[in-house]
Amino acid sequence: AQSVAQPEDQVNVAEGNPLTVKCTYSVSGNPYLFWYVQYPNRGLQFLLKYITGDNLVKGSYGFEAEFNKSQTSFHLKKPSALVSDSALYFCAVRSMNRDDKIIFGKGTRLHILP
Amino acid sequence: GAVVSQHPSWVICKSGTSVKIECRSLDFQATTMFWYRQFPKQSLMLMATSNEGSKATYEQGVEKDKFLINHASLTLSTLTVTSAHPEDSSFYICSAGEEGLVESTDTQYFGPGTRLTVL
Helix or strand or coil: residue B2? Predict the structure, then answer.
């Protein structure tokens, strides 16, 4: 069975500081991993994904995520946070089995403090 | 990039009426679309998978007679909430995947969501 965990309900970071939003997963075999962002009363926007290759994936708005197979993690990072990064972030995972559906974490609310 | 639209963006209706929500893929074709429901401060709950030209696949616990899904074309899926009640009030989001691409990994592209309020 697939699962994904976002251990933090909320993360507070001062503007200009680096930020990390944590995600761990469990799948059979190799995973497809995704990060999405949701702004208030909006749908989800795709940020980045890991499929294969380089463990460090760069995405939209200066975000990046590092795939760590041994720790089964895919933490989202940004070197310098902006107030506009404040939003709800979802990690998602899917196995390479096309019969499996994508599974979303419960979300982490990111607050960037001015 | 892939764009998915939803209409309406919000709707208020009386209890007992039916509401139709449309989901369109604007610049790509999607044989499969997904309908999610999101409660306040919670994650997305997959309701059903909408398959073009065939019946939708519903997740356990989702009433198929209450949430009617029609996927009549490769760019349009509709969700009809029949005989809506206040407990159906929620944020409904659809998504579609980039299928048919060589490097398709089913990255999901989401619509902006529809806020349903049943009085």
Answer: coil
